[in-house]
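To whoever is on call:

I kicked off a structure prediction for a single chain this morning and the downstream step that reads the tokens threw a length-mismatch warning. I double-checked the sequence; it's 638 residues and nothing unusual in it as far as I can see. Pasting both halves so you can look.
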Amino acid sequence: IISFMLFSILTSCIQQESQLEQAISQSGDNHIELEKVLLHYSVNQSDSLKLKAAKFLIENMPGHYSILSDELSNYKQHLLQYDAYLKAPAHIRAIFDVYPYQASLLKLPHPQKVEDIKIIKADYLIDNIDKAFLHWEGPWGKHLTFDEFCETLLPYRVDIEPLSHWRDSLSPEFSPTIDWLSHIDEYAYSPYQACQAVNDILYKSTVYANQIFHKFRHPLIARNAKDWNCVQYVYGVQYVMRDLGVPVHIDYTPQYGVRGNRHYWNSVLHYTGHSYPFQGYNSGPERSLNPHNGTIKVFRRSYARNRRWISEIVKDEPIPPFFENPFVKDVSHEYQRTFNIHIHLTHESTEKRKFAYLCAFNNEKWVPIHFGEISENTVTFENVGTGIACIAGYWINDEIVPASYPFLITSTGKPHYLRPDKKQTQTLRLKRKYPLVNWVNRNSDKMVGAKIEASHLPSFIPSVEVSTLSENAYSNYADHFISHPHKYRYWRILIPRKTSIAELEFFSGNDTVPLKGNFFASPKEKGFEQKKAALSDRDKLTSAETQDWVAIDLGVPASISRIHYLPLTDDNNIVPGETYELLVGDDKGFNSLGMKVAEYSYIDFDSVPVNGLYWIRNHTKGREERIFTFERNRVIFR
């Protein structure tokens, strides 16, 4: 009877069950455990959906694994000896538990893969399925379709961490919040509100984590708790939300369109059908991501294997490492307007290739972020966002080889090719080599309106108002000139809002050497003595924060004719004395248009072909550099 029942399960749907049979065939002796799960849910008709869920987990199980190594065993023992870890909340411990197991960060010499399909136990799988179904019936999961449930609440793992009994271990810490939510009618059934409330608690707990883990060290930990970023947080959030029954995904972009890095975040699936992105342990759910960063492609971590992914359909040519993981879903259309774009390839690959890659720029080189099949010198990329500079490329000898001219994806989905026109030239005046972002420039904004005051006493009672800063320095050096002949020993800048100053110098008359003196600040400025050296250390990347006023004691009365200052900056402005190279892209790569030493806080390059994609490089220092176009006499970073 048991054999007949199992035969019925495995043959009830030819296409679906062939995948199930293939999965079980890879389990070796562990097929007995998997068959126990299927038989367990085959006895009662009321368990038909649980049987379907068990099939989903098993047929997609090949490729899911844990990592074992001596280094990881040592790491775990090291954690257990750390008193702060033992006292930390369970969700903070969970982040440390999975930290070295993040596939995107794993750096072990000889990792040993342990396939789930070969070791997972029936009791473990049944326990996970039963508890996941309870959450599906709960207030924040009942709106989910079966497919949505399978990807948000059902999975028993997040990445490549060891299998563990994590369900029910995290939720007790949030019982008061959950109870509060259940009594508020507008929140009781809202995954959005539940996510917001829980994430607020997680955010507050990071302060505690920073305090107790700032001294924690181990070779497998790349960052201290205070330096954790998106990659560390998304996994901890996924565990917490899944244990609470809140449907949450892990989404990511492999490469921003206008910045030199990738990004991971979470999204909560609301009953409206929308997924609202949020940064776990940081910002709450929103309708969209920051559009200024350029998210040309967005992917979602999935438990189900993507049968249309390139690693599943290509076996006879090499593919970039990013595409080796088939547990991914393309959700670019959920975040932006997308198109299927057709790109002309200007030359064939030196090695036979069926696929080409859509590539974005990471400040150093082109990196692949999507794939498309080649047909008659044209490649089609599906579900692509707009406004970003890209190329199509071949993957040869473990690197991208350009196969097209650079192009911009326009708002209509048509590519605009950036073919440099050498018959028409122009002069480019460049002031920066990297986009000026708001978090940097806001310090410059806050200095506008600052008052310059002078006094004979360090208390500045009485004081005389001499001038007002009216110009915006835009994160660059600025000079403010003063026409006030009287001499005072104490001079200060009274700043209306909290800001950071990198450099500050006072000059008298036509002097080119700044006056010497001792910086001091308002009594409100705690710890200023430890920070004030930054104002005169000639290091543009150090700064002193002030929320009231900062002053200088010159020792003797003196008149001030000029204040030379630098708000907090990223040091990506053009700097006199430093060497820069301008390059322009074509269908073979980037070509140099010459090198120059900057004489001013800008640099001019003459006889530059129009309609190009350009790249300004600093050969003196720094690493943040960005490609750009030049339109209407303005640099537009891409």
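Update from on-call: the warning came from a stale cache, not from the record. Cleared it. Sanity check on the structure: The chain has a mean pLDDT of 90.
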